Amino acid sequence: MTNEELCERIRAGDTELLTQLLEQNQGMIHRVAVRYLPFTDWQCGVEFDDLTQTAALGMLLAIDGWDAARGSFLTYAVLIMQKERG
Asked: Which end of the chain is more exposed for a tag (fewer CB within 10 A), N or C?
C-alpha cells in the first residue's frame, strides 16, 4: 500500500495502519534523524533515539496536514519532520 493510500485510510479512521506507515518509512525517519545528529549537543542529553522519535512524531503529524493535490505524502512529511526537530 502506498503512503498516500495509508494516509487516506488513517484519516478515515483506520488507526491500526499508523504502525504500518511508520515501519514502511523507517528508512526516511532514520535519514532525517541522522541529518540532525551533528547539530545536537550530546552533553545536553539529546540522543539519536530522541531524534528518531521526533522524526516519527513529525510523520504522524503530517497525516492531517497533507493535501493530495499538492504532492506526495512523503515530501510533505519530511518537511514536517524537519520542523519538529527544533
From this structure: C
